[in-house]
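Fill in residues.
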């Protein structure tokens, strides 16, 4: 039991670091897709969007993604980047889109992280 208690915290740290490095890779991929013309969708609330959003981002709150699928276009293979405040709602939006046949969706993560990762 004491070995488990000693290993568990380090395992959690390792998982966290691996997750963070994956997020960084997603942001770089997201910016490349945006630069190449991907549809950019902010899935936060209107208030969050109005407080600041990425240039050319379309606002479709995560709660409306399923009912506004037509706004994502007819090409199910077209590149789409979704983002929110921290990546959780964007992950939900990505899942909704993929369950409706969209195949090229990237979770860019959070707005602040995306801004910090924006290529100069």
């Amino acid at each position: 039991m004491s070995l488990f208690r000693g290993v568990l915290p380090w395992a959690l740290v390792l998982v966290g670091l691996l997750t963070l490095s994956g997020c960084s890779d997603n942001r770089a991929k997201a910016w490349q897709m945006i630069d190449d013309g991907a549809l950019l969708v902010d899935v936060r609330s209107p208030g969050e969007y109005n407080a600041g959003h990425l240039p050319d981002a379309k606002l479709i709150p995560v709660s409306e993604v399923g009912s506004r699928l037509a706004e994502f276009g007819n090409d199910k293979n077209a590149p789409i980047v979704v983002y929110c405040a921290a990546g959780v709602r964007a992950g939900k939006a990505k899942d909704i889109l993929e369950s409706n046949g969209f195949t090229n969706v990237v979770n860019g993560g959070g707005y602040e992280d995306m801004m910090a990762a924006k290529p100069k």
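Residues 11-22 have pLDDT under 50 and may be disordered.
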